[in-house]
Amino acid sequence: MLEHILLGMLMEGTMSGYDLKKTIDQSVGIFYTASFGSLYPALKRLTDKGLISLTETDNSKNKKLYTLLPSGRKEFLDWLAGPFQSGRNEQLIRIFFFDYLEEEIRQQRLGEYLNKMEIEIRTLEAVKGIVEGELATIPNPEDYYYRVSVLSYGLQHFRMEQQWLRDIKERKNLNHDNSTI
Question: What's the CATH fold of domain 2-96?
């Protein structure tokens, strides 16, 4: 996934490895972290694949600058427009870059993700029903409080994510003033 994040960051323009790390940390860093130890090998792989170019500057810092090539742009947009995978971090990373997609593809992918959330919620609700039935038959159900609390967390999380997906799918105002962020 790091390679696709780097391609997405380079959609904004040429950057050094340091600039890429800083941009990742200040944007998608809330749900994805990358170390310099993983960043530079990923940049090398992208260069070797012909998806980005590397330019070394002659200044005193001997800075290396990375630029997205047309093949890298195509690779990134193909990945971005592709169906969601199972990892939630990947889904959040893709949505972060959705401004690069056409509205029809955005809506299709958001609809697919929303359907997955609805299935997750139904599954957890079914599990909750089974657990509640089992807890009613045992002598000390409070002994399972923390285990059951994780189930409750999962349901609350998926419901929140479901509402968020509905909101962004409908392009509702997300109240981007400082008081709500």
Answer: Arc Repressor Mutant, subunit A (1.10.10)
Q: pLDDT tens for residues 18-54?
A: 999 999 888 887 678 899 999 999 999 999 999 999 9
pLDDT in tens, 129-144: 888 888 899 888 888 8
**Distance, CA of 100 to CA of 81 (rounded, Å):** 9
What is this structure's pTM?
0.69
